[in-house]
Amino acid sequence: MRVETAYDGRAAVVRLDGRLDAECSVYLAAALEDVLRAGTRTAVVDLSAVRYVSSAGAEALTRSAREFAAIRGELFVTAPPPAVRLALAAAGLDDRILQTYGPVERGRISGALDLRGQQGRQTREWHAADLPSATIGHYEAVPRVAGATLACRLYGDPARLGAGSPEAGDCHAVAFGERTFGLGLGALGETFEECRGRFGELLAAGGVLIHLPIDGAGVPDYLGTIGGSPPAAMLGAGLVCEGDFSHLVRFGTGGADPVPLRELAAVCLDFVGGDAAGVVMVAETAGLVGAWRRAAPAGAHRGRTAGNGEGEASFAPAALREWLTLTAEPMYAGTTALVVGVVARRAAPALAAHLRPMRAAPGLLGHLHAAVFPYKPVPQRTVGVRSLVDGLLERHGVRAVLHLLADGRPGAGAGESTFLRGLVWAAPLAEPVVEGAA
């Protein structure tokens, strides 16, 4: 079996030659995934040279058609020989997918399909932003809840806990319902004793908690809503936001360059019109830059310092490598990430203590965590956070969790996280409430 892909504007054609059986269906699925990775949302599978199709092959086409439909794209199947057409019809491929026109000529894909109707369906409710021409990405937004603001609660002392392990007095049990999102240093569980020794990067959105424990192999874990009860965590230090989003922002690349995190932060603040905003993003990644804990900081004794250096964590490079992993270059390109956090242009002291400068963008502050998943195309339509998070978890689970950083060291820095396309839910923050200060 030979599989070839050609592009023409906003569409692609995948030509098959041979038998569409279980073995070929793997290559077909990979080719169609590459089409989605390229940002193309309309594809034609040309079966004019296919002699046989098995149930496995028909199922691969049906599954791919569902994936295209889920992101407001379209997959068409065309020109099957009579025997292949009968097999596809028996498998339930309806006339919307199984087209009647003949083989698609190279360079004539757009002429064979009516793409204008699809484009209108995708963009009718969205509005382009009035943004500076210097932006790299292309942005459109749709209002969600007019006048919505997010309540924000602050927990713990991030400066102190950043160098040590929390004690019982540092920690607070926090439940994360579907309208709650947050991030920080924490662990899955309801008591401090249950969580002792496992405090690492944590984030929550859409009724799901995701955590990178520092014990064992450091494999990410997650907990969803069970029987109507929201997942809970012990939070040593972090930010928790609750409420409705005022805007849903859709973005993509305006050219060859991916969209940097600093630009996404600034655009979201422009859309919501506030000094600080809570954001939840699902995006296809070009590369992530950040760090994560592997162990309790070397030399730190349960997070307390003696005032004379005894018990303090060492931040010498050799000691730092014992408990912290920093990305030496952008990682996880070609994956899909859930990013949760708070960004700001100005912040009161209590909130500013939980934020860090986004160094490549003077005047921008942020605290963002990312959970990394195998690639799944992000729908370019109005959709809820929970449905997307559930979709990311349904197949392969979480690959990694990291705290996003900007590494601007001249000549040696890894830069910052960048993205290809995605959706961002955002809303301005109300005055934060300090609940977790020790």
Task: Describe the protein.
Strand 3, helix 2 and strand 4 form a beta-alpha-beta unit. This protein has two domains: 2-121, Transcription Regulator spoIIAA (2-Layer Sandwich); 151-434, Hypothetical protein, similar to alpha- acetolactate decarboxylase, domain 2 (60s Ribosomal Protein L30, Chain: A, 2-Layer Sandwich), CATH 3.30.1330. The strands form three sheets. Strands 5, 6, 14, 15, 16, 17, 18, 19, 20, 21, 22 and 23 form a twelve-stranded antiparallel beta sheet that branches. The protein has helices at residues 22-37, 55-70, 82-90, 109-112, 115-123, 158-161, 192-195, 261-272, 317-323, 349-352, 385-393; strands at 2-8, 11-20, 42-53, 74-78, 127-128, 137-143, 151-155, 172-175, 180-188, 200-205, 208-211, 221-224, 232-242, 247-253, 259-260, 276-287, 290-293, 324-326, 336-344, 356-357, 365-373, 400-404, 418-428, 433-434. It starts with a strand and ends with a strand. It is elongated and about 70 Å long. The protein has 438 residues and is an alpha+beta fold. Helix 1 runs parallel beside helix 2. It is built from eleven helices and 24 strands.
